[in-house]
Design goal:
Chain lengths: 350, 211
């Protein structure tokens, strides 16, 4: 693995290695001294072109727990607001000797461009790009599902203690409910959970299912009640209604927030339809009262806070697996055009 | 994991068992099953003697084969002094994340670290590894221990000491001192991990340096 850009390109073995490594990382996080010297002297840049609280803090925590140096860069208050291009930003990062770049961008495909354009020789981790992918979120969701329900003895909910290490998610049923159209979390999860053997059902109003969803490796439904009652999912993942991506308030995707809640919100009544062991997930931030009621969000089946904690372990695993290992010679020397790269003289590595 | 892999020029093969099988044919067996058993029994007695009993003694095996050896030593310690709990006073210590050669080797999988429930605070910790070579694994283990607590003393038991230390580290308990050249490979095969009979095998004798 050189970059972590999309869950579609992860094999089953790679995914399980990531989850198993995350399990070991999680074990170190219950110690008194949580810091490991593993990535001492490496530099991780958090490059955030879009607002984020938990993902950025989570990546920052993960990098610091592995002793890497962290540079935070957000588009607000940087040269990007003066009109700097992604390429020039990348060349600046290269000149500063970044070993890994964690990038969140409003444009789908920006991390791919950063990884493959030859501007940088750092490992690129996608922290969410547009409506495309959010691989570490999907990995932490899979990790959380596996911890609770996976493995031969059924994880924590089955009375197991081994966190399902080594296991995949074969046979588990997962319902992903809500705004699939705008959700990179849903896209990333559909691919990863399918790779790991789980059966995914997307539940969404017709207006919020993307065109071409029939080619995805999952089922779809317009009816939440029927899905919960008939499919009996082991895990229900509620998606945030991304109103900032819907132009003009509710934007005509659904008639009113109240109607959305009636049809697609998770409340106490729908919670009761679920099997005993089922868990409730949400990638956050939650719109309480819209896609999830306070009762559901605070019930003991909800693992939403744990998802955040697992996020640190999963990101530690991703950083470890991308940054340790043999130093690969850079595939192609980064394009250095004299004059376009600030700080070339003193900043070029080696 | 082989303790000698910190040495540049002896790359660690993740598929070690295949290599073992291949090398088993032309390698020289220097210790057989009964030799290994006798060495472990002697080490167990030395641990008891050195610590004047088994009170507060904790065995920590370094994966992979160190863990197996620690379990076997624990059985012997319990046989010598029933006060030793062969389940509760044994743990495993993964040092992967403390290694100094992470950037020189292919990515290693992170192993399990499991400490005895009573912890290691104030205990006499005996680190157990199969082959002592450059000493870099033990350096990493000492760093890992430092993050987990403050033992009263740390001692080192190795089944084989093959020399070529790169750090000022010496073992307290050694099963067998094996003079080797750096181009040779020393492998410990244990029935629990590798199947077949226990053996210590040297291979690569007479070959040009692996470098």
């Amino acid at each position: 693995m050189r970059h972590l850009l999309s869950t579609a390109e992860l094999s089953r073995d790679e995914s399980i290695l990531l989850l198993d490594t995350a399990a070991q990382m999680a074990a170190t996080q219950s110690r008194q001294i949580k810091k490991l010297p593993t990535l001492r002297g490496r530099t991780v840049v958090n490059l955030f072109f879009e607002d984020s609280t938990r993902t950025r803090i989570s990546f920052e925590t993960a990098a610091k727990r592995l002793s890497a140096d962290v540079i935070n860069f957000s588009a607000k208050g940087s040269s990007v607001s003066k009109g700097e291009s992604l390429k020039d930003t990348a060349l600046t990062l290269h000149a500063m000797g970044a070993d890994a770049v964690v990038v969140r961008h409003w444009a789908s495909g920006a991390p791919y461009q950063l990884a493959h354009a030859g501007w940088l020789d750092a490992a690129v981790l996608n922290a969410g790009d547009g409506t495309h992918m959010h691989p570490t979120q999907a990995l932490l969701d899979a990790f959380t599902i596996r911890r609770h329900l996976g493995g031969p003895d059924g994880g924590l909910r089955g009375g197991g203690t081994d966190d399902g290490v080594g296991a995949d998610l074969a046979g588990l049923k997962v319902a992903i409910v809500g705004d699939v159209l705008h959700s990179r979390v849903a896209r990333a999860n559909v691919r990863l959970l399918h790779t790991l053997g789980a059966e995914v059902t997307l539940v969404s109003p017709p207006t919020l299912l993307p065109v071409g969803v029939e080619t995805w490796p999952c089922r779809t439904s317009y009816d939440l009640d029927a899905t919960l009652a008939d499919r009996q999912p082991d895990a229900v993942m509620m998606l945030r209604v991304q109103r900032e991506r819907m132009s003009g308030g509710a934007g005509g995707f659904f008639p009113s927030p109240l109607e959305y809640t009636r049809y697609y919100g998770l409340d106490a009544r729908r919670l009761a339809l679920l099997p005993e062991h089922a868990i409730v997930m949400h990638p956050g931030p939650m719109n309480r009262g819209l896609e999830i009621s306070a009762e559901a969000a605070d019930s003991e089946r909800a693992v939403i806070v744990e998802q955040v904690a697992n996020g640190v372990a999963v990101r530690m695993a991703a950083l470890y697996l991308l940054l340790s290992g043999e130093e690969q010679p850079p595939a192609a020397p980064p394009v250095t055009q004299p004059g376009t790269q600030p700080g070339t003289v003193e900043g070029t590595p080696r | 994991m082989h303790s000698g892999t910190g040495m540049p020029g002896t790359p660690d093969h993740p598929a070690g068992r295949i290599d073992d099988a291949a090398d088993g044919a032309d390698g020289t067996v220097v210790l057989g099953e009964s030799d290994v058993a006798r060495a472990l029994t002697r080490i167990a007695h030395e641990i008891v003697e050195r610590s004047k009993g088994v009170t507060d003694v904790v065995l920590l095996g370094i994966p992979t084969r160190g863990v197996t050896l620690a379990a076997r030593l624990a059985q012997r310690l319990a046989a010598i002094d029933p006060a030793f709990d062969p389940a509760g006073d044994v743990g495993e210590l993964d040092v992967t994340m403390y290694r100094d050669d992470l950037r020189r080797q292919p990515t290693r999988a992170v192993g399990i670290t499991r400490l005895p429930e009573a912890g290691i605070e104030g205990k006499t910790v005996v680190l157990v590894d199969d082959v002592l070579f450059s000493g870099r694994t033990i350096r990493a283990a000492l760093d890992a221990l430092g993050d987990l607590g403050r033992p009263r003393a740390v001692r080192l038991a190795a089944l084989v000491d093959r020399g070529h230390r790169e750090l000022p580290i010496r073992p307290d308990f050694v099963g067998k001192n094996l003079p080797t050249s750096t181009s040779e490979r020393v492998r410990v095969r244990l029935s629990e991990v590798d199947g077949g009979e226990d053996a210590v095998v040297i291979s690569g004798r007479g070959e040009e340096g692996a470098r």
